[in-house]
Amino acid sequence: MIRAPPTPAKLYVPTIVRKNSLPSITCVMHVQVIDRRGIQESDARAIAELLCTVWPRPGCTVETRIAEMLVAWRDYRGPEVQFPRSLIVRSDRRAVAHAEISPRMIGTSIGKVTIGALAGVCTHPDARGRGLGVRLVREAFRLVDNGTYPFSLFQNYADNQPFYEKLGARAIDNRIVNSIGVDPQKCPFWADVAMVYPAGKRWPSGEIDLCGPGY
Ligand SMILES: CC(C)(COP(=O)(O)OP(=O)(O)OC[C@H]1O[C@@H](n2cnc3c(N)ncnc32)[C@H](O)[C@@H]1OP(=O)(O)O)[C@@H](O)C(=O)NCCC(=O)NCCS
After folding, report:
1. In whole angstroms, what is the distance from residue 103 CA to residue 86 CA?
2. pLDDT < 50 stretches in the chain
3. pTM of the complete model
């Protein structure tokens, strides 16, 4: 059966951001949930501009990122509750903070598990230190707290480990592979640390197969 394209979901969760001396960012902000299956170009542009500011890479432009985002999840056919989403905070029309959480089926010693793959967590350099990063990662982890996903699994650099530990995540030392990669034994994550949320729940020991590239 061919499904009609999904209507983009936009939910607005109000949050008060604590005041500090940065003049360009307003004090009352909202977390906007963008359904990545039907993302509109204007939303993709706002996210792409932020990602290119935080992670400039040769050959990776706002336009190439938009093009990728517009097609990436169009054919998602998994459970509705696990729909892939971007969480953003805007200042005027600009996205100033972003986190993405999307479903990824991985292989573990206890079988296949669909985890919430957290990626693209960033705050615009001019808006850091105002609680936006914490706000968005908490919102993403809420999908684990409410049972949408059993875990969130993600990579990050060691410098940021305390940031995620404060939010209830912990580093893991499982060997991580991608059985369908060119080199199936090579770890598909490129950052220093792999982490899971929640820290307290029993995470499978042994090899983790991302069954795809790192994110
Ligand atoms: C990491 C990042 C998202 C944090 O965003 P932010 O909006 O500045 O974070 P917050 O203002 O919500 O920080 C809240 C708390 O975390 C702390 N924190 C922020 N970054 C931290 C870090 N790298 N290590 C430890 N603590 C950190 C803050 O000091 C603050 O603590 P406090 O409330 O006790 O004062 C932001 O620095 C960023 O975009 N970095 C570049 C991209 C990146 O590395 N992303 C993570 C990829 S895994």
Report:
1. 12
2. 1-2, 7-14, 16-23, 27
3. 0.89
